[in-house]
Amino acid sequence: MREGFRGGVFGGIDGWRRVVGEAKDDGWGLTVVLGIHTTPTTQPIHPMELLEGRRIVGSVFGDFKGKSQLLSLADRCMDGEINLEGFITHQFPFVEINGAFKLLVEGKCLRCLLVL
Fold first, then answer.
1. DSSP per-residue letters across the chain
2. pTM higher than 0.85
3. What is the pLDDT of residues 55-87, one digit of tens each?
4. I need a surface site. Which of 4, 21, 77, 106 has the fewest CB within 10 A?
5. Cα dihedral sign for 37, 39, 42, 43?
6. What tens digit of pLDDT does each residue of 89-112 get?
7. How many CA atoms lie within 13 A of 113 on its CB side?
């Protein structure tokens, strides 16, 4: 999907923004922005869109609520209900931390485990 946006689906990420903007209805609707962008930019929006009822929300972790759900999540991980090890795609000694960050920024791994 990421490569599709970069490579030209709807004209790349800029075209995707245009398509999403055109797909919304005037006066209502919801735009959800997900994830973390490696080089964030400001996106223009006309204030009238918000005054007419348009909503924009963002989330890094989906609908997970850190304050109220973190302890429950930790319990589920400790009980083996959630397999976190399956999400670790790379393992590095701590001295190679820069290489781990490079892979993360380039989108070439899901999670790096650094070993002390």
1. -HHHHHHTGGGHHHHHHHHHHHHSPTT--EEEEES--SS-------HHHHHTT-EEEEESSTT--HHHHHHHHHHHHHTTSS-SGGG--EEEEGGGHHHHHHHHHTT--S-EEEE-
2. no
3. 888 877 777 787 888 899 899 989 999 888 888
4. 106
5. negative
6. 999 999 999 999 999 888 888 888
7. 9
